[in-house]
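Can't paste images in this forum, so I'm doing it all in text. The chain is below; anyone willing to post the predicted structure tokens underneath?
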Amino acid sequence: MPIAKTATPELTDAHVALRDLHLHPLNARAASPEAYDAPDIPVLAASIATLGLLHPLIVQKVEIDGRPVLGVLAGGRRLAALRLLAEDKAAKGWTVTTKIACRALGEDIAAAIAITVAENVTQAPMDPLDEYEAFARMMESGGHDVDGIAALFGVERRRVTERLRYGRVHPDIRAAARAKRISLDVMKAFAAHPNPGTQWAVFEATEGQYRQAWTIRDRLEKAGVKLGSELGRFVEAEYRAADGPVVADLIEEDSVLGDGALVERLLIEKLGRVAEAERARMGFA
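Text version of the structure:
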């Protein structure tokens, strides 16, 4: 029996006021309202506010509560983000009367179902490594900085820096994550230390072993004192005064004091001074 081919649906361009757009009952996510109240909807809204609506909504005339309206078949999350912008008094140029770019489908129900299923089934979250590479290209070629990228996508600054830190991971370790030879969590553990040479030494030392993120992180933490640790904060001033090398990280408190012997000497000296002052304060001989 021959397989019937789905005809390519005919769509016409239209611009529709935001207030006249409603979620189509056939929308694949219509029974999952949580999809339109997800934490990343504000992220999508921030992107639309900055870049505009990159993809039009797919709509079809439909009756809801006995009245004819335009139902959104594809783009329900974009619709939720647009409504969020219309409610935000700080978002300039977005109101319920704003005309939204749409593509209108005729009365073909089969095509309507195919469109909404394709829209949702083919979506996939962006791989964190792809996100890192996109952010890195934006900084290298697009003239953006960390704060600008965070504002553009409506995400926390730390998320952007965390992604960009993947660039500090030894390239062969990133390649292993791409090839699924190690998990993304293990690769992220290597990003805990800003020195690629130190990362690679740990990677080679654990070759043939079952690598776990916590064991990798533990090994790397023993390879240097982080600036944001209690010990790092305690000796930082003396360490910098002694011109001790600091392996810089995008997140400053995760930078590493690279000279362990110097850290140990400064710690002993400072503890000795603190102890002497305490003995004098308490009146000990």
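Confidence is low (pLDDT under 50) at residues 1-5. The beta strands are 11-17, 21-23, 57-64, 67-74, 99-105, 225-226, 246-247, 256-257.
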